[in-house]
Design a protein that fits this description.
The chain has 4 domains: about 240 residues, glycosyl hydrolase (family 31) (Immunoglobulin-like); about 250 residues, Glycosidases (TIM Barrel), CATH 3.20.20.80; about 70 residues, Golgi alpha-mannosidase II (Immunoglobulin-like); about 120 residues, Sandwich (Immunoglobulin-like), CATH 2.60.40. Helices cover about 20% and strands about 30% of the residues. Helix 6 packs across helix 8.
C-alpha cells in the first residue's frame, strides 16, 4: 500500500506542476509577492522565485522546503538580485530586466521569454519527482543550438541527447557524445542562452526525443535555470559571464611554450630536457611533471604527493635552478589517495575522504573502490576537513617553489554514486551523482583561493580537465583530454575549443601532437598540430612518451619548422595578451566562431574548420595528410594571406596554397597587429621595441585597435588599474592614410618610458610622396619602401604623447 500511495502522490504532483493554476488568484489581489528584488509565486508544492542578477538575465528557481537546498555553483557568490519591472495582467505576469522579459501564464507554468518584442523561447513544463528534475522548452524549428560543453558532434547540437556527467574518453577521435567537461548550457542562433544551474548527473536532450523540445533532466540537485539574451553574440556572452564570472588574467608566462610529457621520470631528465630547448634555440617557459615526481611507477603511488627522493634527490634546488633560467615548474596532482600510498593512514585519521553512503549513519569509514591506479578513496573537496588538508599540501609545494597546479582525473574519473560528500557551507550531505559535475569546479576553487592566500599578489595558474559552469572565475585552464595521437584526433579540436569558448571557458586547448597511442612518429601530423597550436589559447605539446612530444627530440627539419612557429607565438604575445584582457573584461573567447561575423548566415553556425583568432586573424588548421590547397570560407571584407600578403575579397570560398612550412592564416584588412622580438622565455619579455603591422586597404576607411600591457604577473591589475592601453587608429581616404597613437591608463612599475616603434604598412602600392610625423617631414633614413612586397616601414621614437602620422 505504501508504494502504491507514493506512486499516486508522485503522479499527482507531476500533474499539478504541469497544469495547475490554482495558486494564482484572479481579481485585484496580487498573485505574487516581492521579497527584496525577488518575485515569488507561491504554489501548493513550493515557491517559484524569479530573480535578475545582471543585465538581460532572469533566473527561475523552484524551491520546495522538503528538498535539500543545493548551492548555486554557477553563479558568483557576490551577486545580488537587482530590481525588475513587474506587471500583472488578466492572463499573465510579466517580469522585465533590461531587454529580456519573462511572460508567465496564469493558466499553467509556461513561461515565454522575449528580447524586447522578439519571441525567443518558452519553458512549457516542469517535472519534479523522486530522482528526477526536468525542464522542457519549446524550440523553433529553424534555430540552431550550440553548447553542452565538450562533445564531438558538430557545432549544431540539435538532434542529440547528451549525458551530463563528466567522464574521461581515452583516445577519442571524430565522434564523442560524452567527454571530460559537460556543461548544462546552450546558446541559440536566436541570440539567447540557457544555463541549467544544476551539477547533478543528467541529460540534455535537444530535439532528440521530441523534435522541437529541449529538455534538461537530472537525478537531483538545484531546480533552477537562467535565461540570457543580448543584441549580438558578444553581448550575450558578456551577460553570461557577468553572472558566472570572468576569467582572471593568467600570468604572461602561461602563454609561452610548455615542456610536458607523460612523464619525466627523473630530476636529470628534467634538466636535460630544458637544456635541449636552449641548445636548439627554441623558446620555453615552463615544464610540467606528471605522476612520476611522487613514485617510480604508474600504479601504487597516487596520493603520495611528496617527492620520490630516489629519482628527484634535490627537487627544491632543481626548481630554483630552473627558475634562474626563466623556467616555471608545474606538478600534477590528483584527488585520489590510494590505500597503498604513504598518506593513506593520515587521510583516514583526518577523515578527509568521501564516506560510504551504504554504511549506517555516523560511520566515518571512507568509500573505497578499485580503479586503474589501485584501491583508493576520494578527497572530499566540499568538506572543510578535506579542503584544509589538500590546501596544506599545495602550500607546501608552493613553499618549495612550484609555480602552478595541474589537476588531473578531476571528473572525478571514478566516482560511485554511493560516495557521500559533506557540503560544509550548506551543512548538507550529497551523493556522488548529485555533485559529480561540480567536483572539478570545487577543486579549482580550493586551489585558486589557497594560491591567493599564500601569494596574494601573484596570479594563480590552474590547469584542470573537468569543471562546471563558472569554473573560469577560478582561473581554470581546461584541456580536451586524452585525445588520440592521430589525424582523426586533430580533426575535432577546433570544434571543442569553440564550444567551450562561447561557454565562458576561453582557454580550452588540446594536447598538441595528440596524447594517446601512436606507435610510429607521424611527422606531418605532428607538425600540423603544433602549427595550429600557435593560434590556440595555450601552447602545450603533451603525450605518452613512447614518442617524444617535445619538438627538440625530433629531426632537424621538424625542429627548424617548429622553431619558427614557436618564435612567432612569442612575437605575437602583445596581440595574444590583449585578447586575454578582452576576455577578462567582456568574456569574449580567444578562438571565435565565424557566425560572430555574419549572424544572418545560418551556414556559419556549422563551420568547425575555421575560426577567428581575435579580431585580426582567420585560421584554418590542416587536418589531413598531403594537403597542397586548403579550402577556406571567407567572411565579408578583404583578407590578406599572412605569409605573402596576397589579397582576397571576402564572402567567397577560396583555395589557399600551402606547403609543410605554411598554415592557412589570413589577416583582416584594416587590422593592427602588435609584435615584439622573440625571446627565450617571457622573463625577458619587453614591448619597449614594438613592431606594429597595419594592413591597409581602401575598402576600410576607419579602424581602431587597443593593446593592453601590464607587468604580466601581478594579480588583479585590471581592477587596480595597474596597466596601460595603447590605442591605434587609422583613417584611409582619398589616397591619404592617417595613423593615430594614444596611450591611456595609470601604468605599472616596469612600464617603458618610451617605445621604439617599427611601423609596417602592408598593401601600400607606391612609395609615399611625403610622410608627416608631428607636423614634420620624416627623414629618409627612417623610411623604407619594399616595392616587391608592397610594404612601407617607418621607424620612430614614441614618448607616449598623442601623435599622428600622415602618408600621402
Amino acid at each position: 500500500m505504501n508504494l502504491k500511495f507514493r506512486a499516486l502522490m508522485t503522479i499527482f504532483l507531476v500533474a499539478m506542476l504541469i497544469s495547475s493554476c490554482e495558486q494564482f488568484t484572479a481579481g485585484q489581489q496580487k498573485s505574487y509577492r516581492v521579497e527584496g528584488n525577488t518575485v515569488i509565486l507561491p504554489t501548493r508544492f513550493g515557491e517559484i522565485h524569479y530573480s535578475a542578477f545582471t543585465n538581460s538575465s532572469i533566473e527561475v528557481h523552484l524551491i520546495k522546503e522538503s528538498d535539500k537546498q543545493f548551492p548555486s555553483f554557477a553563479k558568483q557568490s557576490s551577486l545580488r538580485a537587482r530590481p525588475v519591472d513587474v506587471q500583472e495582467h488578466n492572463e499573465n505576469i510579466t517580469i522585465k530586466n533590461g531587454s529580456l522579459s519573462a511572460v508567465i501564464s496564469k493558466k499553467g507554468y509556461s513561461v515565454a521569454f522575449y528580447r524586447d518584442s522578439d519571441y525567443l523561447v518558452s519553458q512549457k513544463s516542469i517535472v519534479i519527482q523522486p530522482k528526477q528534475i526536468r525542464f522542457d522548452f519549446k524550440l523553433d524549428n529553424t534555430e540552431k543550438i550550440l553548447g553542452g560543453g565538450e562533445r564531438v558532434l558538430g557545432m549544431n547540437r540539435r538532434g542529440h541527447r547528451m549525458p551530463l556527467y563528466n567522464r574521461a574518453h581515452y583516445g577519442y577521435t571524430t565522434e564523442s557524445n560524452q567527454m571530460y567537461y559537460s556543461l548544462p548550457y546552450v546558446l541559440s542562433s536566436k541570440k539567447y542562452s540557457v544555463l541549467f544551474d544544476n551539477s547533478a548527473s543528467g541529460f540534455l536532450d535537444i530535439g532528440k526525443t521530441e523534435e522541437e523540445t529541449m529538455s534538461f533532466e537530472a537525478v537531483g540537485g538545484r531546480n533552477s535555470y537562467i535565461v540570457f539574451t543580448g543584441d549580438n553574440y558578444q553581448q550575450l556572452i558578456n551577460n553570461y559571464v557577468d553572472v558566472t564570472g570572468k576569467q582572471p588574467l593568467p600570468p604572461r608566462w602561461a602563454f609561452g611554450n610548455f615542456a610536458s610529457r607523460f612523464g619525466y621520470k627523473s630530476q636529470q631528465q628534467v634538466i636535460d630536457t630544458i637544456s635541449q630547448f636552449e641548445t636548439d634555440d627554441i623558446p620555453v617557459d615552463s615544464i610540467i611533471l606528471d605522476l612520476y615526481w611522487f613514485g617510480n611507477d604508474i600504479k601504487g603511488f597516487m596520493g603520495n604527493l611528496a617527492w620520490d627522493k630516489q629519482t628527484f634527490p634535490n627537487p627544491v634546488k632543481m626548481i630554483a635552478d630552473l627558475k634562474k633560467r626563466g623556467i616555471k615548474t608545474i606538478l600534477v596532482t590528483e584527488p585520489f589517495i590510494l590505500s597503498s600510498s604513504d598518506r593513506w593512514q593520515q587521510a583516514i585519521e583526518q577523515s578527509i575522504l568521501v564516506k560510504d553512503a551504504l554504511l549506517e549513519e555516523g560511520n566515518e569509514s571512507p568509500k573505497r573502490f578499485d580503479f586503474y591506479f589501485g584501491n583508493t578513496g576520494l578527497i572530499d573537496v566540499f568538506d572543510d576537513k578535506g579542503k584544509y588538508w589538500f590546501a596544506n599540501i599545495y602550500s607546501e609545494l608552493k613553499q618549495q617553489g612550484v609555480a602552478g597546479v595541474w589537476g588531473d582525473l578531476g571528473e572525478p574519473e571514478v566516482h560511485p554514486d554511493d560516495s557521500l560528500h559533506f557540503l560544509s557551507e550548506q551543512k548538507i550531505f550529497a551523493r556522488g551523482d548529485e555533485v559529480h559535475n561540480a567536483y572539478g569546479h570545487q577543486w579549482a576553487k580550493l586551489v585558486f583561493e589557497n594560491q591567493l592566500k599564500d601569494s596574494p599578489k601573484e596570479r594563480p595558474f590552474i590547469m584542470m580537465r573537468s569543471g562546471f559552469a563558472g569554473s573560469q572565475r577560478f582561473g581554470m585552464i581546461p584541456w580536451t583530454g586524452d585525445v588520440s595521437r592521430s589525424w582523426d584526433g586533430l580533426k575535432p579540436q577546433v570544434e571543442l575549443s569553440l564550444q567551450m569558448g562561447i561557454s565562458g571557458l576561453a582557454y580550452t586547448h588540446s594536447d598538441l601532437g595528440g596524447f594517446a597511442g601512436g606507435e610510429v612518429f607521424d611527422k606531418e601530423m605532428y607538425i600540423r598540430w603544433l602549427q595550429y597550436g600557435v593560434f590556440q589559447p595555450v601552447y602545450r605539446p603533451h603525450a605518452q612518451d613512447n614518442i617524444a612530444p617535445e619538438p627538440v627530440f625530433h629531426d632537424q627539419q621538424t625542429k627548424d619548422i617548429l622553431r619558427n612557429y614557436i618564435k612567432l607565438r612569442y612575437q605575437l604575445l602583445p596581440y595574444l595578451y590583449s585578447m586575454a584582457y578582452q576576455n577578462s573584461t567582456t568574456g569574449m573567447p580567444l578562438m571565435r566562431p565565424l557566425f560572430f561575423e555574419d549572424e544572418t548566415n545560418m551556414d556559419r553556425f556549422d563551420n568547425k574548420s575555421s575560426y577567428l583568432w581575435g579580431d585580426a586573424f582567420l585560421v584554418t588548421p590542416i587536418v589531413d595528410a598531403g594537403v597542397e590547397k586548403q579550402a577556406v570560407e571567407l567572411p565579408r571584407g578583404v583578407w590578406f594571406d599572412y605569409w605573402n600578403d596576397r589579397r582576397y575579397q571576402g564572402e567567397q570560398s577560396i583555395e589557399v596554397p600551402v606547403s609543410l612550412q605554411t598554415l592557412p592564416v589570413l589577416v583582416r584588412a584594416g587590422s593592427f597587429i602588435p609584435m615584439v622580438n622573440s625571446v627565450n622565455n617571457t622573463e625577458d619579455y619587453t614591448s619597449k621595441t614594438l613592431s606594429l603591422h597595419y594592413y591597409a586597404d581602401s575598402s576600410v576607411q576607419q579602424s581602431f585597435y587597443t593593446m593592453y600591457e601590464d607587468d604580466g604577473k601581478t594579480f588583479d591589475t585590471i581592477a587596480n588599474k595597474q596597466y596601460e592601453l595603447l590605442e591605434f587608429a587609422a583613417s584611409y581616404k582619398g589616397g591619404k592614410l592617417q595613423l593615430g597613437f594614444k596611450r591611456k591608463g595609470d601604468g605599472y612599475d616596469s612600464m617603458p618610458a618610451e617605445r621604439k616603434i617599427n611601423l609596417v604598412v602592408h598593401n601600400w602600392h607606391q612609395e609615399p610622396k611625403s610622410i608627416f610625423y608631428l607636423d614634420k617631414l620624416l627623414s629618409t633614413n627612417q623610411v623604407h619602401y619594399d616595392q616587391l612586397n608592397k610594404k612601407l616601414t617607418i621607424d620612430f621614437e614614441w614618448n607616449h604623447k598623442n601623435i599622428e602620422i600622415e602618408l600621402h
